[in-house]
UniProtKB/TrEMBL annotation:
Its main location: membrane. Pfam families: ExbD (PF02472). This is Biopolymer transporter ExbD. It is found in: Cell membrane. Keywords: Cell membrane, Membrane, Protein transport, Transmembrane, Transmembrane helix, Transport. It comes from the Bacteria. GO terms for molecular function: transmembrane transporter activity. It comes from Parasulfuritortus cantonensis. GO terms for cellular component: plasma membrane. The keyword NADP does not apply.
């Protein structure tokens, strides 16, 4: 449309062509998009919710039939405070799992032990049938 060439004969007396953009439809579309994004944004988060334990540990009552497995920083294994070879571990776990009731396995791993090694020990315990596993830690020095 060429408004500059029009002498105004096509328009009624006193009316001029509208030079402004009607913003109402644009605002409606924007609000609909805002609602869509507000509904879908929480669904797009991939965070895993994990209930982490508190930093301070509490003394646990030791039962005589509980098993203690220690993993030193150099990878040495200790079954109830006696050194064992890594090859003996599955057989000892299977024998312990055959007992009635099944004892709880307490793992004491050195801070320097890689997580992969602890995961291997836990997998071996699960394969053997020891499904009650606990981790032993030292309480903070500021804990009562």
């Amino acid at each position: 449309m060429a408004f500059a060439e029009n002498d105004g004969a096509d328009f009624a007396v006193g009316t001029r062509p509208m030079a402004d953009i009607n913003m109402i439809p644009l605002i409606d579309v924007m609000l609909v998009l805002l609602v869509v994004f507000m509904v879908t944004a929480p669904l797009l988060t991939h965070a895993v919710r994990v209930d982490l334990p508190e930093a301070a540990s509490h003394p646990e009552v030791q039962h005589p039939d509980d098993l203690n497995l220690a993993i030193r920083a150099d990878g040495a294994l200790y079954w109830n405070d006696l050194p064992i070879a890594a090859a003996e571990l599955p057989a000892r776990m299977a024998a312990a799992a055959a007992a009635s009731p099944v004892p709880e396995l307490h793992i004491r791993a050195d801070r320097q032990v890689p997580y992969g090694r602890v995961a291997e020990v836990m997998a071996a315990a699960a394969r053997a049938g020891l499904d009650r596993i606990g981790f032993v830690s030292e309480p903070h020095s500021d804990s009562p």
